Amino acid sequence: MTRILPQSFTEYHGVKNINFIKTPCHSVYSVVFIFLLLVGILSQGFAQDEPRGNRAMADRYAQWAKNTLEMGLWSEAHSGLERAADFADVSSDIGYLLALTRVHENKPRSGVLEALNLALLVDRWIIYNAELARLLKAETLIALRFYPEALQELSIIRKSPIQASLTLKALVNYRLQDFRRYMRETLDFYPRDTEPVRIFLSFLSKEEAAGRNPEREELDLLEIIIRRLPLLIQDDPELAWMAAPFIRDAGEGRQLVMAYRAVNKPSLQSIPVSLQLGVIDEEIALEELFNLSVYFLDIALLDKVWELFRSDNTKTLLKNRLASYTGMITEDIDRDGIPETTVMYNRGLLEYSFNDVNQDGIHDLVIYYEAGIPSRGMALLPPENSGRRQAEILWERYPSILHVQLDGAKFIPRPLDHFFNPVRFVELFGSRTLFPRWDPLNPPLTRRVLVSKSLRVERPSLEFPGGIEVVELEQGIPVRAREYVGSLMVSETDFLRGRPQHQRVDLDFDGKMDTVRFFKKEYRQMELEELWDFDRIYDRVVTVYDWEGL
At what angle are helices 161-171 and 130-143 packed, to 10 degrees? Predict the structure, then answer.
């Protein structure tokens, strides 16, 4: 899935003339082009016996990447820049371009910040500059909801329309009083800039949805915007329908929306306003909502349209459309433009869903469905000493877990004993179409929970290639471990109070465990969830004839 960046993004980040549309032969030609271009760049560098980190070679690579982006070849540029990441040590342009392509390719935002921080640390610019890097860093921090850090970055950048808009985006979610004050300053300083107006109108819409009326200061700002609206909509026609609900004269608001629809392809978000002001009827609203060219629908948008429908017949048609809908439905809880939940439907049935709760670009939960029922998924476990790990879940009968795969080990609970239901299903408007909503009250899946609920843990044998080790547990405490090669048991370890005592081993695969290993009595302190992964530290080893003579 390719995300189309807003025009303002590509402009202020120094990339122009971008074509996002790929023809069938486009990718073939682009691969050949990039291969030949890379060969040229590398051959020039090595022909002069230049080391890999050479500045001149890094500058040529940065120029190639910039040219590639301007041709619209984002994926190819990203692949090349990832391979050339070593050059970021001597070229800030490489680090900045790498961050830019990571944003476009929907890579984790931690990687974006890492590349930008290195670019700012190296501070050697040829094509771009540190200001662009700080703007992109601030934008990324805002997406992560790190508003104080974003404001800190923006405070050291010269004042500009982009800097002002990003400051407003941070303040509107962090300090409302400062937001109102700064909005007034921005409207005075940049009277023809449309982005601050968009931010303010979106803020008013969000407040209205929450049932809050505008304050006196906000009404004053709205009056300024309405007065300038005829000029502003020439640069941003969308402002017409965004401002229409807040115009006192409903007839004037209706005229604005009608004029907007007459010369522009209406956006999905404009449907509720058009319906509310009587510009379109319910049938047209329904057709536009489920237009075949639309692949994404938002829960908030559906809620608005449903509330505005008065006809039972139209509501029934909406239910029927949802029951056979193919496409994606998203939920943006904080309405910052970045959905936390995205769900794919095929003819009204759930196909897959993913959640990114903290908006870092890493999915906290992914679920795949069969006949609309969760069958398997991946969950990001809470942070531990070794960092965050991803567990693969297979449900036997949702929410009962069949087994969980983590770090190469398979945790197997008793049948219908371990339940994990990270989402709660909400029926959309009585259509029988279900939406899986992240449930923050559900206990998270942790390594300790997995071990305590497991009957046994399976993993590849540490000693016998191609073998498997099965550790039997009782309330999370190991009682026995066996290793198999094929159907042959080649090792058996006995435990006492969770500590390994001795291990019988069949080293020559003759079916006789004629080697006995005794574990050392001294044993390091371990947490409950670590006991099954015991240390192989032996005190002595004897053969069966030595054992028989004792």
Answer: 20
Digit-coded pLDDT (tens) for 511-524: 888 899 999 888 77
DSSP letter string over 507-526? SS-SS---EEEEE-S-----
Q: Which pLDDT score is estimated for 46?
A: 38
Q: How far apart are CA 473 and CA 458, in angstroms?
A: 11
Q: Tell me, rounded to whole angstroms, the distance of Cα 43 from its chain centroid.
A: 38
- Decide: 66 and 15 in contact? Cβ < 8 Å: yes
pLDDT band at 18 (very low <50, low <70, confident <90, very high): very low
Q: Which two tokens stand for residue 248?
A: 């006192």
Could you say which DSSP state residue 241 is in? H
Chain mean pLDDT for the chain = 88
Q: What is the pLDDT of residue 530?
A: 85
Amino acid at site 83:
R
Contact 16, 10 (CB under 8 A): yes
Straight-line distance from the first to the last Cα atom of the chain, in angstroms, rounded to the nearest whole number: 69
Q: What angle do CA 145, 337, 248 make, to 5 degrees?
A: 115
Nearest to 400 by CA among 378, 380, 422, 415: 415
Q: What is the pLDDT of residues 116-127, one digit of tens each?
A: 999 999 999 999
Contact 132, 148 (CB under 8 A): no
Sign of the alpha-carbon torsion through 296, 301, 303, 307: negative
Q: How many CA atoms lie within 13 A of 20 on its CB side?
A: 11
How many whole angstroms separate alpha carbon 43 and alpha carbon 317? 63
Structure tokens at 290: 């489920």
Predicted local distance difference test score (pLDDT) of residue 7: 43
At 296 the pLDDT is 87
Sort strands 327-331 and 296-298 into parallel, antiparallel or unpaired.
parallel
- Kindly state the helix (H) or strand (E) to which residue 496 belongs, with its residue range: strand 488-496
**R_g of the chain, CA atoms, integer Å:** 30
Question: Which pLDDT score is estimated for 17?
Answer: 44
Q: What DSSP state is assigned to residue 86?
A: G
Q: Is the peptide bond before 161 cis (omega within 30 degrees of 0)?
A: no
pLDDT tier at 42 (50, 70, 90 boundaries)? very low
pLDDT computed for residue 549 by the predictor? 45
Entry pTM: 0.85
Nearest-10 Cα torsion for 464, 466, 467, 473: 110
